[in-house]
Predict the 3D structure of the following.
Amino acid sequence: MSELLLFSAIVVGYMFVVTFLMKKLGGKELRDLDEEIQKEMKKAREGDQKALKKMNKLNMQKMKKTFKTQLYLFPIIIGVIMFVKWKFGETVFTIPLVNWQFGWFGTFLLLGIPASIVAETLTKKILYK
């Protein structure tokens, strides 16, 4: 059980750090794109086709900016994945209550997806006040 807690702490910490760095390195441009996308999304929900096209264009710009930022973080991402594989490569985690068993990668995904959603929300609140 203590290995699962350690693994969980590593995954959640990793998600928060990477998300924070992505937002921080993306800077004002990424924040402005997020705000414009939200404005256009409201218009697009009401049926405005021009707003939908503009929102798609803004999303493509955001994806390009995010990808460039990820390239800077790539050594950190690979390093953490290699460390986790080295430390927990042979470990089988049993998830309490449901008794499901996963290897390190399955557990990483199971914990990482919700952690990244929470990290995204908290990071936006912290940085975009």
User: Anything to note?
Assistant: Strands lie at 93-95, 100-102. The longest helix spans residues 2-45. Residues 1 and 93 are 8 Å apart (CA to CA). The chain has a mean pLDDT of 87.
